[in-house]
Specification:
It is a single chain. The protein is α/β, with parallel strands linked by helices. 37% of the residues lie in helices and 13% in strands. The strands form 2 sheets. Strands 3-5-6-7-8-9 form a 6-stranded parallel β-sheet. A 3-stranded parallel β-sheet has the order 1-2-4. β7, α4 and β8 form a beta-alpha-beta unit. The two termini are 29 Å apart. Fe (ii) ion binds next to loops.
């Protein structure tokens, strides 16, 4: 499995605080079958013109020797589009593993039209936006996500949110069930979150093929700067049956 969204560069954002903490998380990832991890610390678009933060490079250098041999680490950032996309993003220092794919996020209450405009800005710079956790935004719906995807955006749903009893969890499940998620990622902040949760959930939903696409094939295509595959919706018959059983209180 490949996880392209994590906050494991120690001490640079609200994620892991130390090399030791990151090493513990990466050990857990390796034990669950994760082979590639992108370190994507937060960065504001307004910070980009000042250059890549030196602290990120230092944290990257410090983390390398502590990474388990089973895992390959990759660079990247989670770019908060708090202002129009700066021209410097085209230099690819910020993209995932130096590919065309740029992980972006917005404030939670951002209107759908602002998201659409900013995503178009990213593609105008020759990059492919990967929208982090679309289910988190209040303007997220199946229809808005469909329109964002039509702009050429890749949807990264948070893996552990798939099991959450919340509106956000319901949105995440709707996106995966509808074939509108392109990859799953952990968004680990030095905690227990792991993409293996999604593997378990998808397996339970008869979504073995989707698990391979969302957790391996498509994230691998991003690292290798290739085009992603469309992911099939989850089999409906089983999920409707499960919902009926839930409604009847049998589960
Ligand atoms: Fe994140």
């Amino acid at each position: 499995m490949i996880d392209l969204h994590s906050h494991l560069l120690p001490g640079v954002d609200d994620g892991s605080k130390s090399v030791r903490q990151s090493a513990r998380v990466l050990r857990h990832f390796a034990d669950r079958g994760v082979t590639h991890v992108a370190c994507t610390p937060h960065l504001l678009a307004s910070q980009v013109p000042a250059g890549f933060p030196p602290a990120y490079q230092q944290a990257w250098d410090a983390l390398q020797p502590a990474c388990p041999a089973e895992i390959t680490l990759h660079r990247g950032v989670e770019l908060m589009l708090d202002r129009p996309v700066p021209d410097e993003v085209a230099e690819r220092r910020l993209t995932i593993a130096g590919s065309r794919y740029l992980l972006v996020e917005f404030a939670r209450l951002v209107p759908a039209e602002i998201v659409a405009r900013a995503l178009s800005d990213v593609t105008d710079h020759g990059l492919i936006p990967v929208l982090a956790h679309p289910e988190r935004y209040s303007s997220c719906s199946v229809d808005t996500v469909r329109s964002w995807r039509e702009l050429g955006t890749i949807m990264q749903v948070d893996a552990t949110t798939l099991t959450a009893e919340s509106t956000r969890g319901e949105r995440a499940r709707d996106l995966v069930r509808g074939g509108l998620a392109d990859i799953l990622a952990g968004d680990n902040h030095g905690d227990e979150r792991c993409i293996a949760t999604a593997l378990d959930w998808l397996t339970e939903q008869d979504g073995g093929d989707q698990a391979v696409m969302l957790l391996d094939t498509n994230p691998r295509a991003i690292i290798e700067d290739r085009t992603l595959y469309e992911v099939d919706p989850l089999p409906m018959a089983r999920s409707i049956w499960r919902r009926m059983r839930n409604m009847l209180g049998n589960e």
